[in-house]
Amino acid sequence: MKFQVYRFNPETDAKPYLQEFDVIVERGMMLRDALMEIKRQDESFAFRHSCGEGVCGSDGVNVNGSNRLACITPLSEYQGDLVIRPFPGRPVIRDLVVDMTQFYAHYKEVNPWLMRKDALPEQEILQSPEERDRLDGLYECILCGCCSTSCPSFWWNPSKFRGPQALLTAWRFLADSRDQATDQRLDDLEGPYKLYRCHTIMNCVQACPKGLNPTKAIGHIRSLMLKNSI
Ligand code: SF4
Ligand code: SF4
User: Fold this and answer.
1) Residue identifier of the C-alpha nearest atom 6 of ligand 1
2) What would the mean pLDDT of 72-94 be, rounded to a whole number?
3) Which of 29, 49, 66, 210 has the smallest set of CB atoms within 10 Å of its CB?
4) Which atom of ligand 2 is nearest to the CA of 140?
5) What separation in angstroms does the CA of 39 have from each of 36, 56, 84, 182?
6) Domain boundary, last residue among 70, 98, 126
7) Nearest CA to ligand 2 atom 6
8) Which ligand number lies closest to the CA of residue 205?
């Protein structure tokens, strides 16, 4: 199988280019296996990866125009050449490695932890099974960034729009019966950009390797904001 791979080393290259690699594809191979083979062929090739099990979220790349997590992307899904690029809309550090600083900053800005007004009890804060069920589809995010870096609103407003990952996380805590900072969380998202820059294009939903739905979470936040304003 032929791979056209984005290459750019800012220390030596005037501009990015695509380099072709041939990889013999065996049954069951994932895209990450092919990238490791490419690394064996050319040691200077750079890409991030770690667990290889779809858990650490570090090997997100753009494949033929769609963001995918390389370790859980079977090569059997593709026919013909593959074009592998870094995540769109992020500054390239080298080859497939992009700068995710802004992405993590937005995550931090939504206060991704429980905030309480009451004193913490001596033991755990109990939830009913129904309250716990509300967190399904929200807590599983692995912070891979496939969603936010496929979102046109995030490309155009990376410092102002929180992006689908951070907004999914905001809803994960708004939806948590143990959290007591609803007003503060909603106030933090006021304004034309942080939340409302989402235009429901749903690229984020298509890109998420964990099957999560940031668009739906964003819709829940909007509804709650509306409810609390009347
Ligand atoms: S639905 Fe909203 S958050 Fe998701 S890709 Fe579209 S604009 Fe971005
Ligand atoms: S919502 Fe999905 S695509 Fe976005 S960071 Fe989390 S796991 Fe990755």
Assistant:
1) 201
2) 97
3) 66
4) 7
5) 5, 20, 14, 47
6) 98
7) 141
8) 1
Question: Which residues are registered as beta bridge partners of 170?
Answer: none
Q: Looking at the chain, how many residues does it have?
A: 230
Give the range of the structural domain holding residue 180, as residue numbers without chain letter.
101-229
Nearest atom (ligand 1) to Cα of 201: 6
Closest atom of ligand 1 to CA, residue 154: 8
Q: pLDDT, tens digit, for every residue of 48-69?
A: 999 999 999 999 999 999 999 9
Q: Identify the residue whose C-alpha is closest to ligand 1 atom 2.
A: 198
Q: Examine the domain organization and report whether 150 and 203 are in the same domain.
A: yes
Identify the residue whose C-alpha is closest to ligand 2 atom 7. Answer: 141
